[in-house]
Amino acid sequence: MAITDWPESERPRERLLKEGARALSDAELLAIFLRVGVKGKSAVELARDLVNHFGGLTRLFAAHRNEFSLFPGLGPAKYAQLQAVLEMARRALHEEMRAGDALASPTAVRDYLRLTLGGRAHEVFMAVFLDAQNRVLAAEELFRGTLTQTSVYPREVVKRALAHNAGGVILAHNHPSGVAEPSQADRWLTDQLKTALALVDVRVLDHFIVAGDRGVSFAERGWL
């Protein structure tokens, strides 16, 4: 049955307008983006298949164009639309981060890092550089690694902090394994970076580990 044949109170678009986006499931939100289904499947059913196949929205958003296009009704045009939506979301969160004290509103920073790192297939190390008032100066991807590790050079992190005249930095990297729990190597690296940056009066304010849609904060655990 097509969505247009559903009772109006059950249609995703109408429900969103009446109840707000938070009331909808992942598949219903994705169905609104897809707009139409394929032969034998409504947009909601197609969206549900996509979410199940990729294991969630995070991995769907990070999917390569070829894998995304394997599904009937999806191709380069729809993939481009999805990537445009994601980039707009990243830029909106980046603007929100820059609007004020990054520590006073940590949700924007956390959401930005999750959206930027959550679905990456390889390990990526980022730094968000802050001024003395904790306002965001820049967010940069500094290193990329393999599926299991990345080589992070404290000297390069210090150079980028000095280039931005930063007073503080929030570190972040992802765990492609899907396990957000920091390793001993993560804690050792954080200590090394904290020591190196302290020599140039730059504070390490946090280190986020991102895995899928989950994240762990070193600051919240009292490790800084």
Strand order of the largest sheet: 2-1-3-4-5
What gap, in angstroms, lies between the N and C termini? 55 Å
Taken in chain order, the helices and strands follow as HHHHHHHEEHEHEE
Q: What class would the helix/strand composition place it in? A: alpha+beta
Which spans have pLDDT < 50 for at least 5 consecutive residues?
none
Mean of all residue-level pLDDT scores: 86
The beta-strand count equals 5
Backbone CA Rg: 20 Å
Describe this structure in words.
By secondary structure, the protein is of the alpha+beta class. 44% of the residues lie in helices and 16% in strands. The chain contains 9 helices and 5 strands; from the N terminus they run αααααααββαβαββ. Strands 2-1-3-4-5 form a 5-stranded mixed beta sheet, sandwiched between helices. A hairpin with a 5-residue loop joins β1 (124-130) and β2. The longest helix is centred in the middle third of the chain and has 23 residues, at 76-98. The protein is elongated and about 65 Å long. The N and C termini lie far apart (55 Å).
Short description:
44% of the residues lie in helices and 16% in strands. The chain is of the alpha+beta class and 224 residues long.
Q: Could you give the topology of this structure?
A:
Blueprint: H1 12-19, H2 26-34, H3 43-54, H4 57-61, H5 65-68, H6 76-98, H7 106-117, E1 124-130, E2 136-144, H8 154-163, E3 168-174, H9 184-198, E4 203-211, E5 214-217
Helix pairs in contact: 2-3, 6-7, 8-9
